[in-house]
């Protein structure tokens, strides 16, 4: 159940990040990149023992959003 909840939260945070930093092409690659970034941000939160995405801890959600925004922005810079 933990992995499933991480993926669902990652998709929701990824959707939020893809709306904040829209891509030029299809929305699917942007959503996938943002979801991966959210999962990495959630992992960093667990690594530093700041909460998990499964428990919807606010600090973990903020780190997931930061990871999603960062990965989406880096991918957009690389695509230029």
UniProtKB/TrEMBL annotation:
Record's protein name: Transglycosylase
Taxon lineage: Bacteria, Pseudomonadati, Pseudomonadota, Gammaproteobacteria, Enterobacterales
Domain of life of the source: Bacteria
Keywords: Membrane, Transmembrane, Transmembrane helix
Protein source organism: Pantoea alhagi
Membrane spanning residue stretches: 27-48, 60-78
